Structure formats: structure tokens, C-alpha cells
């Protein structure tokens, strides 16, 4: 039995906490889309995104001791956020109407290839 346990523990499975969580979220989004349809799935995912965004915004404001962010600070926060989750984004353009970010590395890797964009 010990040899079996040792083989299991040293097996090359390619699984860690991050990969497991990415797979879980990917399958959750896929299943939600299959059960509810694309429009409903987008709505649910949008709600989750809004909640995460609100919480992250509060964390950044509190940490920076600010009550709001201007567009340049928002751009810097977005680039920093992506860096913190292992992405590599950069600011291409900022004006009064829009921020345009570029992406050299997606933090979600191959787990979002082929996923529809809203």
C-alpha cells in the first residue's frame, strides 16, 4: 500500500490550487451557459464581476487613503490588479471617455481560449 501511495503522490498530474480553481470556474461558467443560455449566464457573471469590482475598489481606495480615483489612477489600478493575478497588461490610451489596455499575458492562460467575449 505504501508504494501505491508514493506513486500517487509523485504522479505527474499537472494540478495545483490555481489550476484547479481556474478549471472549476471555467466549467462553472460553461455549465451556467448551457443551462441558462448565453444571455442569462452573462447576467450572472456580470453580477459576480460587479461584486468583485466593488470589493477591489474599496480595498484600493482604503489602501491609498482616497475617496475616489481619477482616470489615470483607475488605469494604474487596473494594470496593478492584472499584475497581482499574474497578468501583464499595460495602458495604451486614456481619455475622458475610455481606457484602452493592452495584454501581453492573460492571467487565466489557456483556460479562457475559445470562451465567448461579452
Tell me the series of helices and strands, N- to C-terminal: HHHHEE
Give the % helix: 55-70%
- The low-confidence runs, each spanning 5 or more residues with pLDDT under 50, are none
Strand order of the largest sheet: 1-2
Principal-axis shape equals: extended
What is the domain total for the residues?
2
| Percent of sequence in beta strands | 5-15%
Look at the helices and sheets and give the structural class: mainly alpha
The number of E-state strands comes to: 2
Radius of gyration: 19 Å
Give the mean pLDDT: 89
SS element count, helices:
4
Gap between N and C termini: 50 Å
Outline the biggest β-sheet: 2 strands, antiparallel
How does this structure look, described?
This protein has 4 helices and 2 strands. It is mainly alpha-helical and 118 residues long. The protein folds into 2 domains: 17-67, no CATH class; 69-107. It has a two-stranded antiparallel sheet. A hairpin with a 4-residue loop joins strand 1 (88-94) and strand 2. Helix 2 (17-36) crosses helix 3. It is extended. The model has no long low-confidence stretch (mean pLDDT 89).
Amino acid at each position: 500500500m505504501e508504494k501505491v501511495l508514493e506513486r500517487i503522490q509523485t504522479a505527474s498530474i499537472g494540478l495545483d490550487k490555481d489550476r484547479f480553481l481556474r478549471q472549476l470556474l471555467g466549467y462553472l461558467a460553461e455549465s451556467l451557459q448551457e443551462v441558462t443560455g448565453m444571455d442569462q449566464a452573462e447576467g450572472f457573471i456580470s453580477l459576480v464581476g460587479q461584486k468583485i469590482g466593488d470589493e477591489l475598489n474599496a480595498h484600493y481606495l482604503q489602501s491609498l487613503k482616497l475617496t475616489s480615483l481619477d482616470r489615470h489612477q483607475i488605469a494604474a489600478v487596473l494594470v496593478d490588479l492584472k499584475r497581482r493575478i499574474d497578468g501583464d497588461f499595460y495602458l495604451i490610451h486614456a481619455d475622458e471617455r475610455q481606457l484602452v489596455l493592452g495584454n501581453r499575458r492573460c492571467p487565466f492562460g489557456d483556460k479562457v481560449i475559445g470562451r465567448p467575449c461579452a
